[in-house]
Amino acid sequence: MKGGITFSGGEPLMQPQFLLETMRLTRESHRAVETSGFAPRDVFLSVAEEADLIMMDIKLVDPLLHRRYTGVDNDSILLNLRLLIEGDTPFIIRIPLIPGVNDNTQNLHASAELLRGARSLQYVELLPYNRLAGAKYRMLDRSYEPDFDTERSLNVDTKKFDELGIKTVLL
Fold this sequence. Notes:
7 helices; six-stranded parallel β-sheet; 6 strands; 171 residues; alpha/beta
């Protein structure tokens, strides 16, 4: 392969017309899209059909916790994930692990169960919490006060993924 283009963000699906037009104009290149999946179904489907690879985050499966920590419902995210699971577009799932928020066995097992039978899933990336976020807030003269313990050790439970034959990579 000769390289390619990765559309990331922010959230590239927030500008669907620009994204799709750019993807159509660059079909000779490998085109990957990194997304939260928070988009209308028709937008997500159009992008997935045009893309060579989708990299999608799963933060929390539980809808109440997802709303609490992200401020939005995860209904559309889970519906769009289902499109990937049932479709032919190769995809990678990324789970940013937040200590005490989504690194619990229940959330990780639920994430693995969602991916059961996904024929185009390449692997799952487990991304440890980046403690540098606090420094970015200070640069903006803001205070960083997360409601979780940023120093807590992460629970990296891959047992359910392993049981289901889903490859995981810890970055």
